């Protein structure tokens, strides 16, 4: 993180003190967590992954503010008016910023209820990353009054992340910087960004957009933040630091005890940072070249004393030394020349189903050798409601020892047709690799009646029982499958009959073909009531579904105490079960 926040002190000592204080907090109810007397929490369980590169965290592991929560209660006494003092500003959250956090929590409660995201977690991260958007320096729309930018991630005391956005978000075309009140790096914002205020834009310097993006980012991978392990993992994925985790947990517990709203722009600005710089400017600062110095005159060689150099009267020549230029070994990401398909099978699934095949991509050198420990991002592209099994349209995995990265399973939505999944290397601008996936309509291969009761009626009456069938596909329930039902002339003539039993439409008119039918979640389809005209005999009702399942059902119309005249027997096709014969 890193905005210019007024008074910023050198952070080396402050960071050490903060880390010691946070790490010393003790005792809690949650497993792996302890608290101090003020209830501030620290974790003793999950360790951050050493394999997590900076560009794969939300912030690129940028610096952050290390101010600890106050020991006093965050809530003002009931019935009192809290003046806007430094202490009150520390405990309070600016109105627009607080509103953004709560709206993001509400959105996630609906979109991903299993995540159990508390808005207080967003507040804790927002405090550590930007001091709640620099004390709430935002307008009514949620835009920050000036950009909040972290330092250049140029490898000089920070991660080394070359520019990925052409300076579009951070104004820097050389290196990436963390951006906005939640401090997203551009490469992460490109896929994690959200429109939180409904203005049609995804702006990392808008608190509504940034808070919603952070909420979704913390809830990816199916994490449940009400459990300590998943909470720890989510926070560490935001910034992979043990001190960061403990600090965020402390602010989370502080805000959970209660907080209050304060006017925008009146929040306390943080002063202590996790790095030892004086802070980053909102725009890149050019470096002033140093003035070359006048080379010094080499001193004359000293006269050796007798006995020096083995008794020789002349000095022993010293061979010149050459210091090789310092080089940084290439990272696995730097070594990638291209991506290659790793024998991914044809990607096809029925609407609503999970694809049985997974996408596998191999990161290779120019010689075709697989490269391990490379981050590969998979992104779903196109007009589709398909997602990965995580519920997101993106996923990032690390290549294995063979250089292969396997994407999470794809889950088809209800939209049929083709869409593309693109594999790219995180942190590199090499060509991506596209995979085409196809979603087919829901289908059934078998239809059976749920009852063996004969369907009979007297002329001009109505059938006592409604026709109900169950659809299955490969033995499993076939839900939401499209179907049609038609009263046909005979087993060999599927055209609509013009006499005999019929349905009624909403206006009470005779209908002998029903379209737009769909099986329910249990694969069941119950047809409307059937009525009979004055024609007696045995008639046929044929039901067809997407996927080819067909069932033909006998309907008998006869006067009381008589048998109906014979008609061609009912038939079934495909794997459908025959209807019972009266």
Notes on the protein architecture:
This protein is an alpha+beta fold. It has nine helices and 26 strands. Strands 16, 19, 20, 23, 25 and 26 form a six-stranded mixed sheet that branches. Strands 6-14-13-8-10 form a five-stranded mixed sheet, with no helix packed on it. Strands 15, 17, 18 and 24 form a four-stranded antiparallel sheet that branches. It folds into three domains: about 10-75 and about 85-260, no CATH class; about 330-440, Sandwich (Immunoglobulin-like), CATH 2.60.40.10; about 445-555, Sandwich (Immunoglobulin-like), CATH 2.60.40.
Strand content: 15-25%
List the total number of helices.
Answer: 9
Q: What quaternary form is this? A: single chain
Strand elements, count: 26
**Mean pLDDT value:** 80
**Domains (count):** 3
What is the CA-based Rg, rounded? 35 Å
Mind summarizing the main beta sheet?
6 strands, mixed
Low-confidence stretches: 1-55, 76-89, 277-320, 567-582
Helix content: 10-25%
Structural class comes to alpha+beta
General shape: elongated
Rounded to the nearest angstrom, the distance between the terminal CA atoms is: 78 Å
